TrEMBL record:
InterPro entries listed in its UniProt record: PRTase-like, PRTase_dom, Pur/Pyrimidine_PRTase, PuR_N, PurR_Bsub, WH-like_DNA-bd_sf, WH_DNA-bd_sf
Organism: Paenibacillus apis
Gene: purR
Family designation: Belongs to the purine/pyrimidine phosphoribosyltransferase family. PurR subfamily.
The keyword DNA damage belongs to this UniProt entry's keyword annotation: no
Subunit structure, interactors included: Homodimer.
The Bacterial purine repressor N-terminal domain, residue ranges: 1-65
The protein's name: Pur operon repressor
Amino acid sequence: MVEMTQYLLARPHQLIPLTTFAQRYGAAKSSISEDLGIIKEVFEEEGTGELQTLAGAAGGVRYIPKMGKEQALDFVNRLCVKLSEPERILPGGYLYMSDLLGLPGFMQEAGKLFATAFAGKDIDCVMTVETKGIPLAYATGAELNLPVVLVRRDHQVTEGSAVSINYVSGSHKSLHTMTLSRRALKEKSKVLIVDDFMKAGGTIQGMVDLLAEFNATVAGVGVLVESGEVESGQRLLQDYISLATLTAVDAKEKEISVAPGNYFS
């Protein structure tokens, strides 16, 4: 049962026929079904996720990673505490987050939270723009068992032909460029966009505009931290999920105010 559980956890959202387990362990399907029933109960009690059973010749079981509300709130509270550390304030009022993005376990929890939020969506891939959003995108992609598409700031020769667009980002409304290889994304794909930080939403809107060049659609947008200092009317994006909200940064007093994001609302 331990090995069977590990097998399921390593293959989220993948339909696994009962014959796979029967052949793997040399056991009858009836015995496999009983073991899966126990695993299903444990997953639900522990808030690990769901174990869906599909009947019929083409049926099997599918593990859907999910994070319960209590676990989600615990993670978000820990995220807020870490982001509130005074030493994170950089010159210019910027917030240092790279250490958190470099913690695999922490990013795995964030990815599972996004996988929970977008579990019912029809998604083909996860997209982010280089570089700091990459760990979050891969963690989310792993929980959803989906490929990750990386948007680059500059075109690389090794990427082949690409589509490039200009977009406006930052408080100074500066013009930037982002590019995506034509081979990286199939036409008419349904894409989940994730990013580490969002202020007015210019970068994410740039990715939305880039997707339009591929006739692709946005299945959802998730951000680890959003800035609460931007009024809703000034934000370019309205439909998104955030895990934490940076409400204020006082560089002089070395104080950072962080609250849970709109995930819980």
